[in-house]
Write the structure tokens for this entry.
Amino acid sequence: MIDHPQCLHFILTISHVSSYKTGLLKTMLNRDYRLSSTSNLVFDECEQLKRIFKKIKYPGVLIDKIVTNFVNSVVGQSSDQNTQHHEKTVRIILPFIKIRNRRMWSVNNLKTLYCESKPDAVSNQCLVYLFKCDLCDTDYIGYTARHLNQRVEEHKSELSAIGRHMKIGHSLTKPDIKQSFKIIKRCKGKFDCLLYEMPFIRDRLPTLNTQSDSIRSKVFV
């Protein structure tokens, strides 16, 4: 259509009704809107259409009015869709299974199902971890094949290097050290934990670690 401007010329097509002329611009706006992936591209296409239709003698006031109304309608539809998306109700359709459906139907209100959100320390096992003291630069690297929270509780004891450090170095008999632990490697099993623990110890040289070779001391001895 752009190659043959006489087909679109506002004055040359005087025999056509005005609704046809305005509908042509609206159609082009709607086409560009559906083909554009972002709002910036939509506005760029609107400006391009303004320039094209001004060249074929469409009144500037008419063009601005049609484009403005179209942009406002598009913005309104987008906001309505966002509102409907947030307020959308999720419904579950259950098949009819005689007695079981009657029991479920007897419940007047289906309440929201709340699932317990377990902390990361509870839901992780078979991993290499790092302890970093919040009160000084002391650190420790270890592994556990069990849940990390169990190992953290064991480290509170004086039998652990971390527990002795917190009691002797910081005079804390019941330290809260859970936030000081960080997972640095997740493993598939105990042997993987041993394989990955030693490189971390050699690279970081944690001050509370006393074993020089984790695999040799725990597996081969």
